[in-house]
Design brief:
GO terms for molecular function: ATP binding; ATP hydrolysis activity. The chain is α/β, with parallel strands linked by helices. About 45% of the residues lie in helices and about 20% in strands. The strands form 2 sheets. The chain has a 6-stranded mixed beta sheet with strand order 6-7-8-3-9-10, sandwiched between helices. Strands 2-1-4-5 form a 4-stranded antiparallel beta sheet, with helices on one face. Bound molecules: adenosine-5'-diphosphate (ADP) and magnesium ion.
Length: about 290
């Protein structure tokens, strides 16, 4: 090992993680159970953390808390070492370029009257970037997500679901973020388009130190992209580990049930999985009784 490597290692050890969520609690109502209950995890620079759990387990709420879209009841959220738990609107605006989001349904988030170029360039326009710089960035980011430069002059209705998801990704990337929260970003797409968009997300990560919080209910999708996985059940973390650990040797029955529920392309395989899923659910019901 050279002295240079040692210095780098030391720097890496000192640099704070990209994101740190500590004992996060989020409540929607006073008398209901918290939607997110004492959740902690860390995302390193350039790392993809998969967040998985059944519907209603609190995944979206965690993403929204990180993005400042729901109030935090207790706990802390640190972004690159800075406490953003109670960030003001102005502080949130300052974070907008570094911390971005891609949601499930890009159609509803794209204004039908805005061209793709206007939609993608919006964050730069807000930041005061000149028109010339904007246009060259738009072209570059369209290219990065595999869309022709001419797409900039067209409207959302002219694109397929998969293309619109690429547009949403382009809009997230145009500010050169360090962390993108992807909430069910491929869930609405058919399997082959899912694979394309997942490959795209993976290749974008390779080119820069981009980290993802990758939220999905489908283990097959999470397994593809995530280096580590956090499993959520009723607002709580029930299992956490590297993807190999969680997928290869799940500790929790709940995790095995989630894995058995993953849709797969082969219908026979899918039927087998569905059978497994049914059996696991039946045994879970017996356990609970
Ligand atoms: N705006 C809201 N108002 C009240 N309850 C909500 C709201 N959003 C989510 N919840 C509840 O919080 C829990 C977690 O929801 P959510 O974070 O959307 O889960 P997931 O994304 O894992 O499906 C669920 O019980 C859900 O019903
Ligand atoms: Mg959700």
């Amino acid at each position: 090992m050279s002295a240079h490597t040692t210095t780098e290692d030391r720097t890496a050890a000192i640099a704070p993680p990209l994101l740190e969520v500590r004992n996060l609690v989020v409540r929607y109502g006073k008398n209901t159970a918290p939607a997110v209950d004492d959740v902690s995890f860390t995302i390193g620079q350039g790392e993809t953390l998969g967040l998985i759990g059944e519907s209603g387990s609190g995944k979206t709420t965690i993403g929204r808390a990180i993005l400042g879209l729901v109030p935090v009841a207790s706990g802390r959220i640190l972004f690159q070492g800075r406490d953003i738990t109670q960030a003001s609107a102005a502080q949130r605006r300052a974070l907008r370029g570094e911390l971005r989001a891609v949601f499930q349904d890009p159609y509803s988030s794209l204004d039908p009257r805005q061209t793709i170029g206007q939609a993608i360039g919006e964050p730069l326009r807000v930041a005061g970037t000149s028109r010339g710089d904007r246009l060259s960035r738009i072209t570059a980011v369209l290219d990065a997500v595999g869309l022709p430069a001419a797409s900039a002059a067209r409207y959302p209705r002219e694109f397929s679901g998969g293309q619109r998801q690429r547009i949403a990704i382009a809009r997230a990337l145009i500010t050169d973020p360090v962390l993108v929260v992807c909430d069910e970003a491929v869930s609405a797409l058919d399997l082959s388009t899912q694979a394309q968009v997942l490959n795209l997300l993976a290749s974008l990560r390779e080119r820069s130190e981009l980290g993802y919080l990758f939220i999905a209910h489908d283990m097959a999708v999470v397994e593809f992209l995530a280096q580590r996985i956090v499993v959520l059940n009723r607002g709580r973390v029930v299992e956490e580990g590297t993807t190999a650990e969680v997928v290869g040797n799940p500790k929790e029955h709940y995790t095995r049930v989630l894995m058995a529920a993953s849709p797969v392309p082969d219908p026979d395989e899918q039927a087998r999985r569905r059978e497994t899923w049914r059996a696991l659910r039946a045994s879970a019901a017996t356990d609970a009784a």
